[in-house]
Write a structure and sequence with these properties.
The chain folds into 2 domains: 121 residues, Elongation Factor Tu (Ef-tu), domain 3 (Beta Barrel), CATH 2.40.30; 111 residues, Nucleotide-binding domain of ferredoxin-NADP reductase (FNR) module (Rossmann fold, 3-Layer(aba) Sandwich), CATH 3.40.50. Strands 1-2-5-4-3-6 form a 6-stranded antiparallel barrel. A 5-stranded parallel β-sheet has the order 9-8-7-10-11, with helices on both faces. Helix 4 packs parallel to helix 5. Helix 5 links the parallel strand 10 and strand 11. It is built from 5 helices and 11 strands, in the order H-E-E-E-E-E-H-E-E-H-E-E-H-E-H-E. The protein is 16% helix and 32% strand.
Length: 265
């Protein structure tokens, strides 16, 4: 398959062709998806479920799919973390932060409806649960919620895991188990000015044994949390940092508008 063609059928408004560059990524398969549900999980987090990945689609918790969200010579592609995949029902779930900005990614997230088609490739991503670790700790902002929860929930019984996840307000806290500590920063506080994740890393009680820490979110905050982890005696090999977005930076290499912040959830 070299290209997925758009059609004039109902729901094809977002069904842009897959490019040879995307199809050439190692380890991915082409995805011709259709939206089955789009709803709000919170004021700033939207749940989109899609069918069409196929019962044989396999991924590891923490991986994502890359979707094509525009056409033309330089089409926009965006990566969205897989929150969960139900192979028996062929349902792929994405939980996406709505930043309140404009651009193809934001417009698709806000306006897509059941029946809409969209093409992409997946799975992508190289940060997984470290099976050799004695315990696991996740720290991240809204953009890291889907990956953090997916990995946390995949831990075998008896393996210690906890997550500290920053959100704007208590209304953005999603249903989760007791291993998750939500950190509302305040509706008027910019995520760039928040120190909640740094303080969580500084104060959390680390279990005995050799653990692994997964840090995700805005690039400068990820670096700050990483520094604190190293100050506490953790080794670099025990850390998996991931910058999902950067302050004032757009996903320009994939066609993102210059004013749009990155950060699929």
């Amino acid at each position: 398959m070299s290209e997925v063609q758009t059609t004039t059928e109902t729901g094809a408004r977002f069904a842009f062709p897959l490019t040879p560059r995307l199809l050439g990524i190692d380890g991915v398969q082409p995805l011709e998806l259709r939206v089955t549900e789009a709803s709000d999980l919170s004021p700033r987090i939207r749940c989109i479920r899609l069918s069409g990945a196929g019962a044989n689609f396999q991924h590891r918790p923490g991986q994502d799919v890359m979707l094509v969200l525009s056409g033309g010579e330089r089409p926009l592609s965006r990566r969205y973390t897989i929150r969960r995949f139900d192979a028996t029902r062929d349902l792929l779930e994405l939980n996406i932060v709505t930043h309140g900005v404009h651009g193809p990614g934001a417009e698709w997230t806000a306006s897509t409806q059941p029946g809409d088609r969209i093409n992409g490739v997946g799975p992508r991503g190289k940060i997984f649960v470290n099976d050799a670790a004695d315990w696991h700790l996740w720290l991240g902002d809204e953009s890291a919620i889907a990956a953090s929860l997916a990995m946390l929930e995949s831990l075998p019984d008896g393996v210690s895991g906890q997550a500290f996840l920053e959100v704007a307000t208590p209304e953005d806290q999603l249903a989760s188990d007791s291993r998750v500590t939500w950190l509302p920063r305040g509706a008027d506080v910019s995520p760039l000015a928040s120190d909640r994740l740094v303080e969580a890393m500084r104060s959390v009680d680390l279990p005995e044994g050799r653990g692994h820490v997964y840090i995700a979110g805005e690039v400068q905050i990820v670096l700050a949390v990483q520094r604190v982890a190293l100050e506490r005696g953790l080794e670099q090999s025990q850390l998996s940092p991931k910058a999902y977005w950067g302050r004032g930076k757009a996903n320009a290499v994939n066609g993102e508008p210059e004013k749009e912040l990155r950060g699929g959830l």
